[in-house]
Design goal:
heterodimer, A: alpha/beta, Rossmann fold, Arc Repressor Mutant, subunit A, 9 helices, 5 strands, disordered C terminus, B: alpha+beta, five-stranded mixed sheet, 14 strands
């Protein structure tokens, strides 16, 4: 998935603006898909798609901010660059609070737009990489036995084998074996790496280790 | 001198006098042929009387024969002229009888000169002298009557019949006085004339007195003439009185006209001359001695008004309708004066206009007052537009922003495309987009400029649907921002109305802004606005309505809302609806508000359709016209009526 080129999704109800933004982005080397309304975008939205969303705010029926709410609710990671004709501060604050990548006003200079789009795509790329890693870690975690996962918790918390054995009411030798298996299954060469893996897993707040 | 000489001479004299009088009348009125004919017959009668007098005093049979021969000439003249006179003067007597009498009499005259010694006698052997009435000695001829005399007698008989017939006709016609006087004297004369054959045949022993047979007629005619004279005098007196009255009423009229500052005029179309009172000259700035024609009048008009006035004149000359127009004239000192003119065209028998009369009056003061009111109204409307602009500024900025965004991004895209190695087809598309977007931005600016313009009101023919379209362009973004859904129902083929487009846009914008404000408390899904256009059932006006789904207007306030400074909102001066009413009233229209049955209110305004458009409408069946249903339209007439059930139902069903 990461190998495919990112797509910039442009949603604007005014066709000439939609066309011009799309031309500019294509000329800058992006893949572009355009939509005349928020509804049209939702109907064709593929949660696996990657890139970013360039979104108009003022639209009849469903407006840009409402679309953002819907995407947040569906846990979409697609970064949003808002493009509005009459943005005010409360509106932009609200949009940024909900995780918008940027908030630009029309008419927009290519420099700003392209920079915002690049930043958004980079963000998406990073998020997605993290997400992939997290799911990888989750898969490794899934391979652990309950006992091994228990041990993992103690190891990450920085406990020594002896302490763990004491807490779990077993001998140090057994813990050593468990620990070696955990390290092997988690493909961690050191405790430090193990901690980093677990942290990445926790950063993507949706994941419970 | 014997009394016979006196009587016969007097008879002749009376005839000549009457002949003279009638001849003089004919000389004055050459068309009065009866007078000439009567004059001829009277002269003939006079001559007859004189010849008879000569006969009475003749001593030799030879002279007598000669006199009888010559007396036929005046008799012929008398008969012919008299018959013609009766035909012309009384318009009676059968034509064939008249012709027969004339023919026979002419034949008698000819035979009289062919036969010897004359038509009456084959020979006069002697004269018989005898003493007659009071011992006068008179001569009568003695001889053999001529059988050819029969023709003369027949003509005499025909004359009698002709006279009776004419008299009966006149009597039946109802002119009994004339029948008695003239007819009676005619018949009497015709009977008396019969003494001639009787004398000739020796039946009676009297001298000829044919002249007297005519004297009855002379008396009757004298009576008629004096009657005519009396009537003429009376007519003349009446004429004098009526002329005096006319002068009096003319004076009064002039007085009234001057008091009313009115100039009276008359245009002789055939000669192209204009007569006008002194007041009128002063009004138009004509010099007192100036000769006036239509061209002079036309040149005095203000160039901008010339066409209108000429059209009004042409229309009344063509149709005969009253001429009516208001125009400015340029006075010699360069000042302008407003004048109202009214006039009436008179036509001749062939339907050609011959003259036009009328009056003109100075209306400068009224016009100035009207202009001032209009100016104030426009200033208020303009101020209100300026303040509305504040509310629309967001919308307008957005309308400008969209094309500017498209232009900038397109231009930058093109720069990139050109730098990358040009895809000319795409660049071409970009340029065409830039052009159209630039035009769009220009239109926004143009609308804005129109909106802020402080020009005089320019009434012209316009389509109300276009006004609605323009308003939608102005407020579209505003509606989107306020999350108001707009429904539009425009009737097709609406007739044009006369008005100022910007002011009508203003009314609609105010109504829409008002409706949006009324819905701020509603849920976004309920914020719906409906604009409809239609036509009144009687084709008299175009109707526009704006329906909202917001709060209703309290029934007791429904009239008050159009008053200035009435407001229920925290913002605004409460002038919007009052400006609407001012503008619509100035457009001779009506505006009112009604509550919808369930919720919200509807504002309606109507604008009258110009007369020619109305005629077209009435002529064609308005089948393709989307008409307002009865309920909705009538409300314009009675604004207080309960609600707009029908309209709301239609609309809610539509939802």
């Amino acid at each position: 998935m990461n190998t495919a080129s990112p797509t910039v999704f442009v949603v604007d109800d005014y066709a000439p603006v939609r066309r011009s933004i799309s031309r500019l982005l294509r000329a800058a080397g992006f893949l572009v898909a355009t939509f005349a309304s928020a509804e049209e975008f939702l109907a064709q939205y593929d949660p696996g798609a990657w890139g970013c969303l360039v979104l108009d705010v003022a639209m009849p029926a469903l407006n840009g901010l409402q679309l953002q709410d819907i995407l947040v609710k569906t846990r979409s990671l697609l970064p949003i660059v808002f493009l509005t004709g009459e943005g005010d501060i409360p509106m932009s604050v609200r949009a940024m609070k909900r995780g918008a990548s940027d908030f630009l006003t029309k008419p927009v200079d290519e420099k700003d737009l392209l920079a915002a789009v690049r930043v958004a795509i980079d963000k998406h790329r990073a998020w997605r990489r993290e997400q992939v890693e997290a799911s990888d870690v989750r898969a490794r975690l899934a391979a652990l036995t309950p006992r091994e996962r228990e041990v993992l918790g103690y190891v990450v918390a920085g406990k020594l084998n002896k302490q763990i054995a004491g807490d779990l009411g077993t001998v140090e030798q057994t813990i050593k074996v468990h620990r070696a298996r955990v390290m092997q299954k988690m493909k961690a060469r050191s405790v430090a790496e193990l901690v980093r893996l677990m942290e990445r897993c926790r950063i993507n707040g949706s994941v419970h280790c | 001198m014997s009394w016979i000489s006196i009587v016969w001479s007097m008879n002749a004299g009376a005839c000549f006098v009457l002949a003279g009088v009638c001849f003089v009348v004919w000389c004055k009125q050459t068309k009065s042929w009866p007078h000439l004919l009567f004059s001829c017959s009277a002269v003939a009668a006079g001559v007859i009387a004189l010849i008879e007098l000569a006969m009475l005093h003749t001593n030799t049979a030879g002279n007598y024969t000669e006199l009888i021969r010559w007396i036929h000439v005046p008799v012929w003249v008398l008969t012919l002229s008299f018959v013609a006179f009766v035909r012309l003067y009384l318009r009676a007597g059968r034509r064939w009888l008249a012709w027969s009498i004339c023919g026979l009499r002419t034949l008698v005259l000819i035979l009289n000169f062919i036969l010897t010694p004359n038509i009456n006698f084959r020979a006069i052997t002697s004269l018989r002298h005898f003493s007659w009435w009071g011992g006068e000695m008179v001569s009568v001829p003695v001889g053999t009557p001529n059988p050819w005399c029969l023709f003369s007698n027949i003509s005499l008989l025909l004359l009698l019949i002709f006279s009776i017939d004419a008299t009966v006709t006149v009597w039946r016609r109802g002119d009994q006085r004339r029948a008695l006087v003239i007819g009676g004297s005619m018949i009497l004369g015709a009977i008396v004339a019969w003494h001639i054959p009787l004398v000739i045949w020796g039946v009676i022993d009297v001298p000829f007195f044919l002249g007297f047979a005519y004297s009855g007629i002379v008396l009757a005619m004298g009576y008629e003439l004096s009657n005519d004279m009396l009537q003429t005098v009376q007519l003349a007196r009446e004429l004098e009185t009526s002329e005096a009255n006319l002068r009096e009423s003319q004076k009064r009229m002039e007085l009234a006209a001057n008091a009313a500052e009115m100039g009276m005029w008359m245009w002789d179309i055939v000669r192209d001359e204009i007569w006008i009172t002194d007041k009128g000259r002063a009004l138009f700035g004509f010099r007192p001695w100036e000769k006036l024609d239509f061209n002079r009048f036309r040149n005095g008009l203000h160039p901008d008004d010339r066409e209108t006035v000429l059209e009004a004149v042409e229309t009344s000359l063509r149709t005969g309708a009253e001429y009516e127009s208001e125009f400015r004239v340029v006075l010699p000192d360069g000042q302008l004066r407003w004048i109202a003119g009214r006039g009436h065209v008179e036509f001749n028998g062939d339907g050609q206009p011959v003259r036009m009369r009328g009056a003109s009056v100075d209306i400068t003061k009224r016009k100035q007052a009207e202009e001032q009111v209009a100016r104030q109204r426009n200033e208020m409307a303009h101020l209100s537009r300026v303040s509305t602009l504040g509310e629309l500024s967001g919308s307008i900025a957005h309308e400008l922003n969209l094309p500017l965004t498209a232009i900038l991004s397109n231009a930058q895209a093109a720069q990139r495309i050109l730098a990358n190695g040009a895809d000319l087809a795409e660049v071409r598309e970009i340029l065409s987009d830039i052009v159209s977007e630039d035009k769009r931005a220009g239109e926004v600016i143009h609308r804005l400029r129109q909106w802020l313009k402080k020009d005089k009101v320019q009434e012209h023919s316009l389509q109300i649907n276009e006004v609605v379209d323009d308003v939608l362009k102005l407020i579209r973004s505003d509606l989107v921002n306020q999350k108001v859904t707009m429904d539009i129902e425009l009737a097709r083929n609406l007739p044009a109305v006369s008005g100022d487009p910007v002011q009508l846009q203003q009314v609609l914008v105010n109504l829409v802004v008002n409706a949006c404000d009324a819905m701020t408390g509603c849920k976004t899904t309920e914020r719906r606005l409906l604009i409809r256009t239609g036509i009144e059932n009687d084709n008299s006006a175009v109707v526009v309505s704006v329906t909202d789904r917001g709060c209703s207007i309290p029934e007791e306030k429904i009239e008050e809302i159009f008053e200035p400074f009435f407001t229920t909102k925290s913002k605004g001066m409460g002038l919007g609806l009052s400006v609407c009413r001012t503008i619509i009233t100035a457009h001779r229209g009506k505006i009112c508000a009604t509550n919808n049955p369930d919720r919200g209110a509807t504002f309606h305004f109507s604008l009258p359709i110009s007369s020619p458009e109305k005629e077209v409408l009435n002529a064609s069946h308005p089948a393709n016209m989307q008409c307002f249903s009865h309920g909705a339209v009538r409300r314009l007439g009675r604004c207080r009526s309960k609600s707009s059930e029908r309209l709301a139902e239609v609309w809610l069903d539509g939802n």
